[in-house]
Design brief:
With 926 residues, this protein is of the alpha+beta class. Helices cover 39% and strands 21% of the residues. The strands form 6 sheets. Strands 1, 2, 3, 4, 5, 6, 7, 8, 9, 10, 11 and 12 form a 12-stranded mixed β-sheet that branches. Strands 14-15-19-18-17-20 form a 6-stranded antiparallel beta barrel. The chain has a 6-stranded mixed β-sheet with strand order 28-29-30-31-33-32, sandwiched between helices. Helix 6 (276-285) packs across helix 9 and helix 11 runs antiparallel to helix 12. The structure holds one RNA strand of 72 nucleotides.
RNA sequence: GGGCUCGUAGAUCAGCGGUAGAUCGCUUCCUUCGCAAGGAAGAGGCCCUGGGUUCGAAUCCCAGCGAGUCCA
């Protein structure tokens, strides 16, 4: 076993006269030109030296610094590439947001499966780190959104084969030399630069890494990704796992653009350096106007905070007293001065984050990336309100979107406004809830229990602070426990089930030695018959999986169902019912075994295949139409093609309206009429991404060096499915329905070709049938239905009125009933086979006449009894009913003046009613 | 993907096994110089849908649909 110490002994350090030193404060090892240097230079071992006196020769703005960095590496043979979106899930499915420049090249490039877009390359990659959200604005140096400037080189060992790049571009010495040279060019004093040894581990990879510190600020991290997790590896690293060297090794650097700009300007916090205009604007609109003396105080406090070990919010709070004492001011005064600024800094950063997120097409929702966007937006809204900024949030976000050069600014504003509105409604709903809850507890003089507080937050999204405010108005006290968020977490139960049911398919092992099946349908998309040799055959519970050397059968994938058909030999015919692809080997599920080595003729169910091809092309057309109608943020969230109908799930921030559906239909059918050609091509992944962006990955992210593109007019998508040759072949496209399948995702169901005609006819048939029933012509149906419904309601009311009238008439006449005296009371005992409503109404009418009613009915299969007692009569109706209905095999009860009950034994009703006077006597005065 | 909360009058909600309610809004009348004023009368409900339990379900149980929210 060995550690990584040797990895840091660079020729470059030797040549330049560096020495290796252990920090006298933290013990970390670092490299420096200054032999007398004792500490590593990073806070808390040292403090900021550049605030107030910039560490570089010239003052750079953010964009000037970016340009300086990129052109520095361009001049040194690095190709400059465009940054990727911040929504990393657009090209990889293991993460949500881009958190580092190397994300752009994971997993295919770093693993060596695909070539990088250039080698070496340089990029300034916007990133978002939600982990820092609480620290933003407060620590003076944390931002949620930032640009990671980087240069990357992708190397493969000489002897390694089968990788998408080969040989060594450059490695550690050159990387450190570049960094040194860049710093020197900026005017940094080389004597003050330290390179700290800090091995990096992450995501199953690892390697030596170096932190670059200058004047107390970490300016860059140079990572040498060269190891992977390996139980038998030689290296035991800080995460407790073993690692061994890989065949590929990658230079992964990260230079914080914001930090470099800050260093060049020497402002009190990073925020003033990054967005000076935004902060001025916010201060102005929040009415923050400090005197020179106050400004100086704030600046000094910020500088001091930088020198302390301030890594999160709690540290800031703890340090504030110290700082106030040092500055000789009251801690309260310092807080009053600093807190408004902290909010403003955070707002500036959050708005930039939102601009990135929404600009890159993230639609807020309650899941995944959309949830993160919503969280940031709501937090920002609270901060804006707290700080008293009198500018609408959509305008603040738009300012950043404009600065970042996004073109979908109208949509961004619309989304922000829609989200604000929804948040407002949530808060309003919440306030009402809290108010009534608080009033309840205030009446009893109790404080609001913690359980309620947790529920209000978890189920209704109301911050505990908000609850406290509202409750105070109602006069209820609220105690927010320190471990509040832990309690919320508890409510979410036993943590991630983590039942990674990685039941690796046995089938993968079976086919491991078989060659990948030659897929004929790409070259011959319209073919329906072919010949092939049976390579192998596996017996299954319900048939056989036949492997051929080549096939026209499309295996299920990309939302397109498998083809069906038959395999024939000279003697036999086998039905193909399902087709799956396992690691490139196509398995044909059949009802018989043709035998290995047999030559078979395959034939597809041609009609089914054609319908699926139409459906697949239609899916692209509908998706394109949806984007045209709803906006560029519309992305595919899933799709399923079918013979009868297909569906496309798209991200959108509100329900799709009837007008929009019709517009989508019009656009889709226009594309059909234009009869555009549908072309396929197999470009390199990088070329495809460069030419068409990541929007080609609507249907998912395929692996491999090359991707298959399907081009329909302006629409380009990576797609493995089968398509018709021209859009005209799709025929009619009709949208069947839309429905929300989750927040931020709408499902569009549609049909194409003959299925579309059939669907239209079905709808028409329904209408015609309905019209026939109503005996009117189809256009009159809505009006007539309305009239019928109104009449139906009117009749219901009429029936209620008549029931009451009838009841009154019965009560007045008491015909057919028996009247008995129980004590002083007159009791009407009567059977009338009516429903419960009528029974009750009649009993009420009898009671209104001052008499007691005992009514029975056997209308609905079971027996019902109702007893009504006028005021002042000492008979307990509930008790009477209980006794009566017991004899009917059931039960019953109610208040003393009016009760009802019954039982299944309808035959006993007459007897029970006959005995009723006796029962009433028994409960009389009881 | 999972947890939790909620679906009752046009709106906001109460009721939580026994005859569907309140407030605002609406209609008509009275009062008033006038009204987000006062008084009187009235209209307005498949209590989300479907099963189950029960003599009886808006109410309890199950499933579905819908809305909201928190977490991965």
């Amino acid at each position: 076993m060995s550690d990584l110490e040797d990895e840091y002994r660079l020729d470059y350090f030797d040549e330049e006269g560096f020495v290796r030193t252990a920090c006298s404060s933290c013990g970390d090892h670092f490299w420096t030109r200054d032999e007398r240097r004792e500490t590593c230079g990073e806070p808390p071992c040292a403090s900021y030296e550049f605030v107030g006196s910039p560490g570089f020769d010239e003052s750079y703005t953010l964009s000037e610094m970016r340009e300086a960095f990129l052109s520095f590496f361009e001049e040194r043979d690095h190709e400059r590439i465009d940054p990727y979106p911040v929504a990393a899930n657009r090209w990889r499915d293991d993460v949500l947001l881009t958190q580092a420049s190397v994300y752009d090249f994971q997993p295919h490039v770093t693993s060596g499966q695909a070539p990088p877009p250039a080698n070496p390359l340089t990029v300034s990659q916007p990133c978002i780190r939600m982990q820092d959200i609480d620290n933003v604005g407060k620590t003076g140096r944390h931002t949620m959104a930032f640009e990671m400037m980087a240069h990357h080189a992708f190397n493969a060992r000489e002897e390694a084969e089968g990788y998408a790049y080969e040989g060594e571009v450059y490695w550690k010495d050159e990387t450190v030399a570049y960094c040194d040279e860049l710093l020197r060019e900026m005017g940094a004093d080389p004597e003050k630069v330290t390179y700290i040894e800090d091995p990096w581990v992450g995501g199953g990879n690892a390697g030596p890494a170096i932190e670059v510190i200058y004047e107390g600020l970490e300016l860059a991290t140079l990572v040498f990704m060269s190891m992977e997790r390996d139980e038998d590896g030689d290296y035991l690293l800080k995460d407790g796992n073993r690692y061994s060297k890989m065949d590929t090794y990658v230079v992964d650097t990260g230079y914080g653009l914001e930090r470099w700009t800050w260093m060049a300007q020497g402002t009190p916090t990073v925020y003033e350096a990054v967005y000076p205009e935004t902060i001025d604007f916010l201060k102005q609109h929040a009415g923050v106007d400090y005197t020179d003396e106050e400004d100086r105080l704030v600046a000094e406090a910020a500088t001091m905070a930088g020198g302390l070990d301030v890594d999160d919010v709690d540290d800031v709070e703890a340090a504030r007293g110290e700082i106030a004492a040092e500055l000789g001011v009251d801690v309260e005064r310092l807080r009053d001065l600093v807190e408004p600024l902290e909010s403003i800094y955070a707002v500036a950063d959050h708005c930039r984050t939102l601009a990135y997120m929404l600009g890159d097409g993230i639609v807020p929702s309650n899941v995944k990336t959309g949830y993160l966007a919503r969280m940031v937006l709501r937090r920002t809204k609270r901060l804006v309100d707290d700080a008293g900024v009198d500018v609408p949030l959509d305008e603040l976000v738009d300012m950043q979107a404009e600065r970042l050069g996004y073109e979908n600014r109208d949509t961004i504003r619309e989304i922000v406004r829609a989200e604000e509105e929804q948040y407002r409604e949530t808060l309003e709903r919440g306030s009402r809830r809290v108010e009534s809850l608080a009033a309840e507890y205030a009446d009893r003089g109790d404080p609001l229990p913690t359980g309620r507080l947790v529920e209000l937050y978890d189920s209704h999204g109301i911050q505990p602070e908000t609850v406290r405010e509202i409750a105070a108005r109602e006069g209820a006290s609220v105690e927010v426990p320190d471990d509040f968020y832990a309690l919320v977490a508890d409510r979410h139960g036993g943590d991630d089930g983590g039942e990674t049911a990685a039941e690796t398919d046995d089938r993968a092992a079976e086919v491991a030695d078989l060659p990948e099946t030659d897929l004929l349908f790409y070259d011959d998309p319209t073919g329906t018959a072919f010949e092939a040799v049976v390579l192998d055959c596996f017996e299954r519970e319900d048939g056989y999986d036949v492997v051929l050397d080549q096939t026209l059968f499309y295996p299920e994938g990309g939302g397109q169902p498998a083809d069906t058909g038959a395999l024939r030999t000279d003697d036999d015919s086998f039905a193909v019912t399902d087709v799956q692809s396992v690691d490139g080997v196509v398995l044909h599920r059949t009802d018989g075994n043709p035998g290995s080595g047999a030559i078979v003729r395959g034939s597809l169910d041609a009609e089914r295949r054609r319908a699926l091809m139409r459906a697949h092309t239609a899916t692209h057309v509908v998706g394109h139409a949806a984007r045209e109608v709803l906006g560029d943020h519309v992305r595919q969230a899933g799709a399923q093609k079918g013979v009868e109908s297909s569906r496309l799930d798209v991200r959108h921030f509100r329900r799709i309206g009837r007008d929009e559906i019709e517009a989508i239909e019009r656009v889709a059918n226009r594309i059909v009429r234009q009869n555009l050609s549908v072309r396929q091509s197999w470009p390199d992944r990088n070329e495809a991404e460069a030419a068409h962006g990541f929007d080609i990955y609507q249907g998912g992210i395929p692996p491999g060096e090359q991707v298959r593109l399907i081009t329909v007019g302006d629409d380009v998508q990576a797609c493995a499915g089968t398509h018709v040759e021209r859009t005209g072949d799709v025929g009619l496209i009709t949208v069947l329905s839309t429905e929300p399948i989750q927040d931020g995702v709408e499902r569009i169901a549609f049909a194409a070709g003959a299925a579309a005609v059939a669907a239209t006819q079905r709808v028409e048939r329904t209408l015609v049938d309905t019209a026939e029933t109503l005996d009117v012509s189809p256009p009159e149906v809505p009006e007539t239905a309305q009239r019928f419904f109104d009449e139906w309601k009117e009749r219901g009311k009429e029936i209620d009125r008549l029931t009451e009238e009838l009841a009154a008439a019965r009560a007045a006449g008491d015909g057919g009933g028996e009247t008995v005296e129980v004590g002083d009371a007159t009791v009407v005992v009567r059977r009338l086979d009516a429903d419960a409503d009528e029974l009750r109404a009649t009993a009420n009418a009898v009671v209104d006449e001052g008499r007691t009613a005992v009514l029975g009915s056997a209308a609905g299969g079971s027996a019902q009894v109702v007893v009504g007692v006028p005021d002042g009569v000492p008979i307990d109706a509930g008790e009477a009913v209980a006794r009566l209905s017991e004899r009917l095999g059931g039960g019953g009860g109610g208040p003393p003046d009016f009760a009802q009950g019954g039982g299944p034994d309808a035959d006993a009703l007459d007897d029970v009613l006959a005995d009723a006077p006796g029962v009433l006597r028994a409960v009389h005065n009881a």
